[in-house]
Write a structure and sequence with these properties.
elongated; OB fold (Dihydrolipoamide Acetyltransferase, E2P); ARFGAP/RecO; alpha+beta; DNA repair protein RecO; NA-bd_OB-fold; 8 strands; 5-stranded antiparallel β-sheet
């Protein structure tokens, strides 16, 4: 028997009554398991086999496959599931976590960033937009691809701190000084947003509420980080379109 503290990232129906679960284990990263009979009306495993279900899961192993036998639920994030803005933000978080697990051994911080972001929404302490902005900022920082801020991503000079806007290059990976900006493709972004991005990237998951950007800056952060992840990691988030349709 194996026990793992997990959150369900996604599920797929299998055979007549089973489900295949993709879970994020706090200690072991991604886990795939079969939940026999989980789709039966009276199944004791039904609640534990839904995306966002979180708790202690027990498995047995047979022929290199894991089968779910029991689960002690800690949280279902009921309020998140019943608020479209929050739920769409949560879906982006689950998809991103699923894609990033294979690229990192730092399971603990990614897991905590996900859980604390969900709890902040569940407890109505942050909107879906603000929680997602933190999660994106923190995961980019932990993946080691945080953009250059305060120094030019091209020449390394300090960027001017005057004015309300800054030049940012997705291709070069960060802020661009006034000398280099005319020679490469840049976009204009808010300096306040970049400052907030840096704060969120450095903030521990436990400090998410204090570190979170305000609503307007969070929206700008999400837009920038979505394109940044696509450019730096060729990572496209399918769930982002549903979040964007409602929230952005």
């Amino acid at each position: 028997m194996e026990k793992h503290y997990c959150i369900v990232l996604r599920t797929v129906d299998y055979k007549d009554y089973d489900k295949i679960l993709t879970l994020f284990s706090r200690s072991h990263g991604r886990i795939h398991a079969q939940a026999r009979g989980a789709r039966r009306i009276k199944s004791e495993l039904a609640t534990a086999c839904q995306p966002l279900a979180c708790g202690e899961y027990e498995f047995y192993k047979k022929d290199d496959k894991l089968f779910l036998t029991a689960a002690l639920m800690k949280q279902e994030f009921y309020r998140v599931q019943n608020d479209y803005d929050k739920f769409s933000a949560a879906c982006v978080m689950l998809e991103l976590a699923d894609k990033l697990i294979q690229n990192t051994d730092d399971y603990e911080d990614l897991f905590l960033a996900l859980i604390y972001s969900l709890f902040a929404m569940e407890q109505d302490r942050l909107s879906g937009t603000r929680a997602l902005a933190y999660f994106l900022s923190r995961t980019v920082e932990r993946m080691g691809i945080f953009p250059a801020l305060g120094t030019c991503a091209v020449c390394g000079r300090e960027t001017a701190d005057g004015g309300e806007t800054a030049a940012f290059s997705l291709e070069e990976g960060g802020e661009i000084c006034t000398a280099c900006a005319p020679h490469i493709s840049v976009r204009t972004v808010s300096r306040n947003m970049l400052a907030g991005l840096e704060v969120m990237g450095k903030a521990r998951p436990q400090d998410i509420v204090q570190a979170a950007a305000d609503e307007a800056e969070a929206k700008e952060t999400i837009e920038l980080m979505e394109q940044y992840l696509e450019n730096m990691m060729d990572l496209r988030l399918k769930t982002m379109r549903y979040f964007r349709e409602k929230s952005l």
